Amino acid sequence: MRVREPVVADADRLGQIHVAAWQAAYRGIMPADYLDGLSAGERADYWRAALSRRPRPGSVRLVAVDDGDVPVGFLFGGPAGGDADAPEGEVYAVNVHPEHWGHGAGTDLLRAAQRALAATAFETAVLWVAPRNQRARRFYEHHGWRNDGETRTEEVFGTTVEEVRYRRDL
Is this structure's pTM higher than 0.90? Predict the structure, then answer.
């Protein structure tokens, strides 16, 4: 895998990855009708708009690509909570197409993001994960992230999600 910055032309593929990853990872965690109603086209429009905007200071925008330069996963991060004055970084989203789970894309994305956040002078970073998403929790723990006990309920793309916070030194 290779990691690079995404471009607007990646938006359609990011929409496909986003929907496939959520439908696989959140089955049994989020309502089935919500997951079944996700639209790759709507997600692509979201990513097209996001990638058309200039990145905020401290933003981390990455895609893992296969040998043909086709995205197989993405990661977005930046200052915690999107607050430019935040004292720590945050990984906002990591999604890898289920066909590529276990092949290193997530690891490559997470390592590149940790380096990028550290280069922005953050000493620590956080991320939020659904408590019942055991696969993701094992993945983060394998890479040195630890549950710090904080919880929240968040509105994410039209559904309410319970989350626990993970933290690690960079």
Answer: yes
